[in-house]
What does this fold into?
Amino acid sequence: MKHSFWLVFILAGAIACTRATPEQQIVNDAASALGGGDTIRAVRTIVIEGEGTNGNLGQDMTPEATGQQFNVNGYTRTIDVAAGQARIEQTRTPNFAYFQGTQPQKQVLGVAGDIGYNVAPNGNATRVSNAVAKDRRADIFHHPITIVRAALDPAAKLTNPRTAGNESVVEVTTANGLAFTLAIDGTSKLPTRVVSMTDNPNLGDVAIETTFADYQDVNGLKLPAHLTTKTDKFTTADIRVTKQTVNGDAGNLAPPAAAASAPPVTGPPPATVTAEEVAKGVWLLAGQSHNSVVVEFSDHLILIEAPQNDTRTLAVIAKARELRPNKPLTHVVNTHHHFDHSGGIRAAVSEGLAVITQRANAQFYQDAVNRAHTIAPDALAKNPKPLKIELVDDGMELTDSAMTVQLYHIDGNPHGDAMLMAYLPKERILVEADAFSPGAAVQPYAANLLENITKRNLRVDRIVPLHGTIAPFSDLVKTQAKTTTD
Ligand SMILES: [Zn+2]
Ligand SMILES: [Zn+2]
It folds into this structure.
């Protein structure tokens, strides 16, 4: 009697000690499948070498297109797991007519603690924004070993275990407060994907998801040889691993001195907006990398371009209103969907402006205005307004007794399929973005712009560009001639 009492007691205790909660069980299953918790806890460094592709997020031919890619060679992703440091070095070569030219470009993208940094090909290091650094800190855990290692930490919080299709899924908040969704395969128990949420100024709250496939044996662990990362629905990186090393020499991942000593970058730089009257009732608003143009009609103003972000666009709108305080600013003409040229559309909508754009962009802006921005609430999230939109097919004329602006689709340009240019016939001014940027070393889109101007018999004296400074029409002709003879 006594013996059996003690036996039951011991068995009950043993069961209580080993029974994991459902959320722990998912992590334990993943750890076992990957090679065991002790082996995973002993991982100090991971070096992943490979090749693949990067997408061209927000800069492709249309809002939905995904055909433009960078071929990635010499890819090395080094993670110092314990130190929370990581660096990606790669050489990428665009497979499309890129504004910087089609030669290979070397990239070094790092993070060490709170400091994110890039190293340019000339060796100059710069500190990146806190937001980018945070994304890179999260990216350290977009790998099966690092996420499971973090989830095994008793200080991690595991919640919401569930089954979805053939996956078991659990929410993981790491000891240092980063949040992830971890999914493992229902059969093999190997991690299939990791998801984290971040803010994208154009897309709002977005999921960054890395999927893992083609697991192989490396030093007693299973590691994926194919990693694919998406932002929202767009693939940003697809890497096939050629070699991986666990606990090898990670080299020095500390940030270069220039980045380490730089102050934190908490957001975009303050806006500087200059106003230059280029003709009666036409102003170029410049001052930084992206210009806008204000055009005065008899009883209202319109703006051409709401670029970059809230900071830039709200400052540009304020400057436009300052120029003619008695005339309402009613519309913004958007030249094309590229994120740097449309990053202020939500701000413009929040200020009550109607958007004029090429028809192929309509759904993109409808989505952009409807998307949630809870992670980093922007002007429109704080002051929601519906989108008012007017669509251009081949052309549209805005005219009254004081002013005429003709908007034309730029047909066949390798920079984008849904681009508009604005022509002011009386002033013989052409306003355009990216098709011709006066002074730029590479002009892969200028020949097509000239073709469009010629085809439509536009009599242009001056180009008022949305990058760079005003140029005589002859500069475009010379650039185009140089491009075609190169
Ligand atoms: Zn562009
Ligand atoms: Zn541009």
Observations:
- Residues 2-18 form the longest helix (17 residues).
- The first strand starts at residue 45 and ends at 55.
- The mean pLDDT is 95.
